[in-house]
Amino acid sequence: MTNRLTDTIYSSPIEQMSDFNFDQRVAEVFPDMIQRSVPGYQTILHTLGLLTERYAQAETNLYDLGCSLGAASLMMRRHNTQSHCKIIAVDNSEAMLERCQHHIDSYRGDTPIELHCQNIQDTEITNASIVVLNFTLQFVPPEQRQAILNKIAAGLKPGGLLLLSEKVRDNSASMNELLIDLHHEFKRTNGYSELEISQKRTALENVMKTDTIDLHHQRLSEAGFSESGVWYQSYNFCSIIAIK
After folding, report:
1. DSSP conformation class of 168
2. pLDDT in tens, 175-196
3. Which residues are documented as binding site for S-adenosyl-L-methionine?
4. What angle do CA 55, 59, 65 make, to 5 degrees?
5. Residue 90 backbone phi and psi in degrees, to 5
6. 144-164, pLDDT tens digit by residue?
7. For residues 160 and 244, is the Cβ–Cβ distance under 8 A?
8. 41-169+208-243, which class in CATH?
C-alpha cells in the first residue's frame, strides 16, 4: 500500500454534511486515512500476525469481518503456518472490496482468500479458529452487536480466537473528553486541520456508536467466550483478545 493518496475528503467546508460512508472516495484514500486517524493501527496488525501463528488451526476458516482493503487478511495469510486453511474476508462496500482484491492479488500466499460482499450480520461463521473484527463492530447498530458476537462464539472451534478492535468511550465523562482531546491532538500532529477533525466527527456521529470496555467484556462473556482481555490501548482506541 505504498504511494497512498492523501486523505483530503473533509479539507474544504461542506455545507450539507452527509453521514460517513465507505464509498469510492474513502476507498481511494483509506490507507492514509487510517494511518493518520487510528493510533496503533500497525501495532494491531503486527500482533494479529503473531496471534495467527499461535491460534490458527489446520483445516479451519479464518474470518476478517469488515475487511476494508484486506490488511488483516493479508497479515493472517502471511503468518498462517497451518495446512488447508481458508481466509474469508467480508465487507459490505463494493468500492472497498474492489481495491481489496487488487491488494490481495499483489501479494503471493499459500492460504486462499475469499471475498464476500455482504453485511457481517448475514455472514455465517463456521469451523473458525480466528475471527477478526478490526474497527468494524462500532459501525453496526448497537442492538445487533450481541447477536454477532453470539454467532462468532458459536462458530469458533474450542481454543479459537476473536480479535476485537474498537474505538471506545470511558465510563468517566471527564476522562472520555480527555481521551477525545488527545486523539484530536494525534490527528493534528498527523496533519489534519481543525476543519477536517470537526467535519469528520460530525459525519461519524450517526454511524459510529462507541461502547465502554466494560460493555465489550460483558457481551463477550454472554456470547460464551471463556475469557477476554485488553492487550492494547492508545487514547480511546483499544484491542481485545477473546478466547473460546
Report:
1. B
2. 999 999 999 999 999 999 999 8
3. 41, 66-68, 91-92, 134, 201
4. 60
5. -125, 135
6. 999 999 999 999 999 999 999
7. yes
8. alpha beta
